[in-house]
Amino acid sequence: MKRKLFLGLFMLIIGNFLYAQEVAFEEYDLDNGLHVILHQDNGAPVVTTAVMYLVGSKDEDPEKTGFAHFFEHLLFEGTKNIERGQWDQIVASSGGSGNANTFLDRTYYYETFPSNSLETGLWLESERLMHPIIGQVGVDTQKEVVQEERRLRTDNSPYGAIFEQLLKNLYSEHPYRWGVIGSLDHLASATLDDFKNFNKTFYVPNNAVLVVAGDIDSEKTKKMIQDYFGPIPKGADIKRNKVIEKPITTTIQASYNDPNIQIPAILLAYRTPGQAERDAHVINMISTYLSDGESSKLYKKLVDDKKMALQIFSVPISAVDYSSYVVGALPVGENSIQDLKKEIDEEILKIQMDLISERDYQKLQNKFENNFVNANSSIQGIANSLADNYMLKNDTNLINTEIDIYRSITREEIREVAKKYLKVNQRVELEYLPEQKDAN
């Protein structure tokens, strides 16, 4: 039995070692400023084509919010060479799948195909960049889509407005202060020229990175990339104003009434450094230790042991200029959100005053090792990591070295960073409450 257990552990270690091998890649720029990253892995006949644009809700006019997310939808409408409504059919008929997502700093489009459809993926993404149709029919259609998405995910979903409420209280000047989905009133009042100008400004090759990962021949792929993307004109330089938020020095008390909930929640939000900073990596470890998953300190204490909370959760907000650590809880029984806040603060104080145990520290290291391996265990995951590390962290090779940052973080560093950022007077306390019913 012991021999079988040893062999099983040995094979698991070897398997993780194999999957965690260094990700080889090549990167270069086209004359029009498009940054290209290639990762050749001929182990399976699959390829991902992905383009990340450095445009998110941060880049919007405060009076015209929601544009970045809107374009995530609009740029599937069609191009001069792709009829309206045909995009998804082309992807599916080639045996592929694809999607897009938008956040505070970037918008990301990707497709995964059998490798013999690589050229289709490159053609699609070059069409999106070179020949988009920004027309009234598509704009009107996608306005309805976004309105329905907001109703479904935010307005009519339990706890759906948490993200918006956190951001509006964490920031007073920075454009992170509005939600990614933006204002429906702003979208409704926007003109067709507003949308055309947004596209002309941000959807240009010198504001993008193209990643091709998987079963490719690098030299043949380079030629196809040049053929499809080389002729696209370079855009004008984008002027961005860096907004610096004043530090939070007094606890910000906030509340919000959600008509879709019956159980209140307490959320404590701390503004933390941008995601490329070393301290942001330490905060990630603190978040995992305190509130990420059923093995975290707060879950075990408040849900399992004391049975005071129905749920403990973290809302990760990692971004370029600032990130945040957010911990929240829902009470159960006669316990109040104030009771939960007191218990959470006790655990935060412990991590500020004492070193976490060697056992807990090793569990953290193991979890981050596992997360690192899993993130790069698929071609699609590798493509996303390459784009993200280049565009948002200015170091593509973090796909291989970021785990070394986590390995080097000490217990002493965890304690000092908790002291530095997790102060009561440097946070937002959001009471997320059921809507009061009219007594009449």
From TrEMBL:
Domain Peptidase M16 C-terminal: from-to ranges: 190-367
Protein's GO biological process: proteolysis
Pfam family, any one: Peptidase_M16_C
Entry coiled-coil feature ranges: none
Residue ranges constituting the Peptidase M16 N-terminal domain according to the UniProt record: 36-176
Family per similarity comment: Belongs to the peptidase M16 family.
Protein name: Insulinase family protein
Organism: Flagellimonas allohymeniacidonis
